[in-house]
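Sat 14:20. Reprocessing the chain from the morning session after the first attempt stalled halfway. Input below, unchanged.
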Amino acid sequence: MNNKTTIILLGIITIAAAILGAVLSLTLIRPPGSPVPLPPPPNNLMPIFMMVTTAASFANTIMASYLLVIYITLYRKIKSEFTMGLIVVMFVLLLYAITANPFVHVLFGFQEIGLGPFVVIPNVFTTIALIVLLYLSLE
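Finished this time. Tokens:
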């Protein structure tokens, strides 16, 4: 597969994962009268923050997984210490993407929290960093 096809396919998979994350985030919002009510965020933006955070986390998981595969393949060819460092960094970013996903939090029994944009911003920055790394790795 050439680079252009790979980029298009990866983009489609990442966007599909982000959309899946956004749709799944709608199930995360607790209905009124939930056992442990949280104070409502200002302007009732919690559903939007949850949707963006979950979508970014799903997209980050896909991109970090793909980059991990790229770096493992590269390490098998050249056996460089730098590439091994990239593998470790990608593995840690993959773990971050998985554990930062609000859907995973809810699956393990924790409630969403009302930190507003401070939950979204780190995931958006991680998404930008992974896009840059992916672009540079596919060049």
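The longest helix spans residues 46-78.
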